[in-house]
Amino acid sequence: MADVDIGNAKKMTIICTKGTLDWAYPPFILATTAAAMDVDVTMFFTFYGLGLLDKKLNLGVTTLGNASMRMPMGGMQMAMPNMIGMLPGVTAGTSVMMKNLIKKKGVASIEDLREAAVLSDVRMIGCQMTIDLFEKKTENMIDGIEIGGAATWMESALQSDINLYM
Amino acid sequence: MSDITPDVVLDTKGLNCPLPILKAKKALKGMENGQNLELASTDPGAVKDFEAFCRATGNKLVSHWMDGEVFMFMIERVV
Lengths: 166, 79
Fold this sequence. Notes:
By secondary structure, chain A is α/β, with parallel strands linked by helices.
C-alpha cells in the first residue's frame, strides 16, 4: 500500500528454473499473493524459467516421466502411459487440455498472473548467463524487467525473510 | 449477513486462488481507511486465506458468512 514504508516490508525471493505450464504456476501464484500481502518480492528467472519472461508465451506440459500426473476425466483420475505420451502431438494435446481445465476452474492464466506481478511491482530479473547460453533476445522479453546475475539475486536474498527455489 | 453497509462490493465468484486475494488487495488499495469491502467468493479455500490475508496485512476481517454456497466477507481497510 502507498503508505507502507517499503524499507520495513518483509522480503521474499524466488528462483524460477522451470518453464513448463505446470511449473510456471507456483512461483507466480506465490509472488502475486505475497505482493498483495505487502511483501517486497524479487523473482530471478534462470535456465528454462527464463522463457517465462518472453512477451509471447506458449507454455506446455508433458505427461512423460511424470508418474504422479493424473487428469480428471469422466469422474476418474486418469494417468497417461509414457508410450502414448511420447507420440507426436500428445504434448500439444495435453497442454490444450490443461489450459481448458485451467479456464473452466477459474484459475488465472500465467499471462494474467505475470501481468498482476508486474502491476504490483514484483521485481523480475532475467539471468544474463542464460541469455548468453541460449542466445535469447531481450527485445522479445516483457518490459520492466532487469537483467542480472547470481550476485544480483544474492544481494536480494541476503536481505530477504524467505528465499525459494522452484 | 452483515449489518454494515459496504462502501465497495466485489464479486469474485468462479475465480480460483489466488485471484480473490489479488482482486481484494486491488480494491482495498483504492479505498480509504475505515471503509468496508464486501466480497463474494466460491473458492473453497477463501475463509482460511482471507483470515490469513487480513492478519498479515493488518486489515480487519469484520465478519464472514455463507450466502447459500457463496463465501461472503466484510473487510475493513485499516492500513
